[in-house]
Amino acid sequence: MATVTAPALRATLPGVLKHRAVRKLLLLALVAAVLAPLAHARWHSGTWPAALTVDLTDPLTHVSDWIIDNRDSHPLFLYFFGHISNGVVLSVRAVYLFLLAAGWAGVTALAAFVAWRTAGVRLALGTAAAFLTCGLLGMWVPTMQTLALMVVAVLASVAVGAVLGLAAGLSDRMDRALRPVLDTMQVLPAFAYLLPVVLVFGIGVPAAVLATVVYAAPPMARLTSLGLRGADKEVLEAVESLGATARQRLLTARIPLARRELLLGLNQTIMMALSMAVIASVIGGGGLGDRVYQALASVDVGAALAAGIPIVLLAVVLDRVTAAAGRGTEPAHGRPTTYALLAAAVAVAVAVRLAGRLDWPDAWTVAVAEPVNRVVDWMTDHLYSGVPVIGGTADWAGRFTTWVLDPVRDGLQGLPWWSVLLLVAALAWLIGTWRTALTAVLAMAAIGVLGVWEPSMDTLSQVLAAVAVTLVLGFATGVAAARDDRVERLLRPVLDVFQTMPQFVYLIPVVALFGVGRAPAVAAAVVYALPAVVRITTQGLRQVDPAALESARSLGATGGQQLRQVQLPLARPALLLALNQGVVLVLAVVIIGGLVGGGALGYDAVFGLAQGDLATGLVAGAAIVCLGLMLDRVTQPADRRAKKGA
Amino acid sequence: MRLRTTTAAAAAGLLLLTGCGAADMTEQASPFANAQGARTVTLSVQSWVGAQANVAVARYLLEHELGYRVDTVQVDEVPAWDALSQGRVDALLEDWGHPDQEQRYVVDKKTIARGGDLGVTGHIGWYVPTYFAKAHPDVTDWKNLNKYASQFRTPESGGKGQLMDGSPSYVTNDKALVENLNLDYQVVFAGSEAAQITQIRRFAQEKKPFLTYWYSPQWLFEKVPMTEVKLPAYEDGCDADPEKVACGYPRTPLQKYLNADFARTGGKAAAFLKKFRWTTEDQNMVSLLIADRKLTPEEAAKRWVDSHESTWRTWLS
């Protein structure tokens, strides 16, 4: 088929892009023509051949037993992991005791002071209000536990990330070695690696902190390296000509010049760590995440929300403060004012301490759980079924499952395994380079070798369906927001909340609306991925060169024509980035969807955690990683790599 | 130069801090325990509400009668054993029977001590809603289940009837049972108990038929009356081979377990937790207050404690 149409295309469309795409496809078709019959003859078509799988159940069970039996006696644990674990416990405890000793007033005053120093009066007031709200919701102690855990996890992530970033920024060889690792970590759903961490460190705070560090350190490393490499060459030359040593150059020029990137890295690290705080509750992280998780066990959305709001508030405050620090817009104020205000903050802390009001007073709490539950119940009762004309949400979910999810799943599982590999290769190569295509194909093959081809195809079908829905909704909303400022202003707080709200909070309403199964998993994934897609789309459309738009307008193009023929083509890189982000986020939640009947790999990961079954959990985790890698590479535009390296 | 001295000093400090010796992870408690001089007990809460009820009452009494501070951590069943053995939690108040873990931690490693009966007997089974069982009385025998398969069909179960299972942490042989009893059913895993309860209540509101894995004691029976489907009777050892199971589930007297060190040195708290023993009705009352009336666990525990003083007085003596 491809061979027949290719010459015709080449004749009518002599554009370089078409040309290259066709050549790539031709080459692939050639490879397929040789290899596919071979594969078909040697094994069989259909699902992944059993002869090509490796069963890891026995060795993994063996490893798991060995770890449990030797955890309290083997030197590796006593002298290495034991000290790490001990260090984490001690530091978290130190921070926690400090926060408790400062009392609620002291913590609030200190936080407001820091916010004022870096970002000005408005943010200081906002910060104080946020902390007081945490208290009002009756969540003071859990908030402090989460904060203590966060402080330690973020410091550790920043240290690890900065060291890795320094290495990658200064040495090209380290950069080449680290980049694929960091790229992989970026797409790793957190659920995938909780199990090994738990096995070594046991349930509890050390495991939670370490899992958070693994999750939150990569952005710091990436941005540190980026900042160091992006330093102005002329400044560096000038410093060198002054006779500075390598270390002086690093400390006085390159690091200060990379300040923006370093602070952006800190910002991202904090955000990732906070989003992990809730997932870490599954392995005993305690704090706010644990409250969310416990509330869900009794199907209490209101209580989950009461614990979720402080997380959102912490996220918003930390995001704004670190972002302001990154912009370097420090408000001008003299030293005396600074000291005076610091003294005032300390005075507040001491005064409340002396007054014996260290703990948040129980009487000052507002119960939000009940009204929220009533609203959620009302909504789900009235939307679930029997809505005239359009039918209830349950009917939609049923139809979506029968008409979209089932055919896509059956189609993917029914395709011959080698044709799936071929499809992946073709897509990845068309959008990216031969390197990305190769990685994607290898990742896909690894899934087959691990022996989880069928569940992976099931998960993949959910991801594809969710991504399609997300893109349709996200692009539509993004276009609307880009065209009208009012829409964007209205959307911004909503997007902020949905992006930081722990995914666990909306798992239950989603079940109440769509029932148990794959449909609610897809719905939750759409809700989670939508904000990022909307945001990137809006930004991309807005950054389109105004001159291009102006000239289109002067040629008499209508609004729709401008959008289709100027804005969308020019914003193509942003749209591809939105697709890439959307895919990665959707995968993360489809996995968590194992908790609401999504089945497939997500269920296996949850099962592994719940039963302490390393063989099931680790294999599912590895398959999830491979799936993430494949999806990321397939949607990775060719120029992303070049830009990142700059 | 200054940098180097600082680094050296920091390294020396770290070595001093860790004491250079062995650091046994099984001896490390939660960093949030014993803050501000309070004596703390850390209890494991499993994800189901019955377990929350046990913990709520134990916590209320520990805090108000014995002056402890109580931390709770939500842990799944099997990892809870591991956490208990490491001292991350001090006590586990409701265990549904894990012979492998018991052999490993109680008998071999001796890091966990038995804490006695909880007083509640647990039973797992298959259930249909009572409104459906009344209309079709023969559905309560497994032999007739295939006749009704088409009525239990959902989009998730494909062409077969749906048997809904819950959290992956629960003990279940359902996949093998469906196979070995030749039932025309598909096991659909809800993935968590919360999701399963939400779905059951939805079905009940619509008066739809459904077949679900469920267990008693469970507060949901008071809201959605359900009737058990008789499976082939349980006999000792009939579930030995997980692939070939063709019988129902046993009745299990639920057990308490304590961390071995805590059991020895835990003082009044350990003694109290060993004596803690109540009935199915008691547990259901508290569960229902928490899960259905949406009281906080503390308020729910207070109501029970206020009305059952004679019961809990004996635990304190």
TrEMBL record, chain A:
Keyword set, alphabetical order: Cell membrane, Membrane, Transmembrane, Transmembrane helix, Transport
Membrane topology reported for the UniProt record: Multi-pass membrane protein
Residue ranges occupied by any ABC transmembrane type-1 domain in the UniProt entry: 143-322, 456-635
Keyword Membrane assigned: yes
Subcellular locations according to the entry: Cell membrane; Membrane
Origin: domain of life: Bacteria
Annotated TM spans: 95-116, 123-141, 147-170, 191-217, 269-288, 295-318, 338-356, 415-431, 437-456, 463-483, 503-530, 574-602, 614-631
InterPro entries assigned: MetI-like, MetI-like_sf
One biological process term in Gene Ontology: choline transport
GO molecular function, one term: amine transmembrane transporter activity
One GO cellular component term noted in the UniProt record for this chain: ATP-binding cassette (ABC) transporter complex
Homology family: Belongs to the binding-protein-dependent transport system permease family.
Entry-linked PANTHER family: GLYCINE BETAINE/PROLINE BETAINE TRANSPORT SYSTEM PERMEASE PROTEIN PROW (PTHR47737), GLYCINE BETAINE_PROLINE BETAINE TRANSPORT SYSTEM PERMEASE PROTEIN PROW (PTHR47737:SF1)
Record's protein name: Glycine/betaine ABC transporter permease
UniProtKB/TrEMBL annotation, chain B:
Recorded GO CC terms: ATP-binding cassette (ABC) transporter complex
Endpoints of the signal sequence: 1-22
InterPro entries hit by this protein: ABC_Gly_betaine_transp_sub-bd (IPR007210)
GO molecular function: transmembrane transporter activity
Pfam families registered for this protein in UniProt: OpuAC
Positions of the ABC-type glycine betaine transport system substrate-binding domain: 40-306
Protein name: Glycine/betaine ABC transporter substrate-binding protein
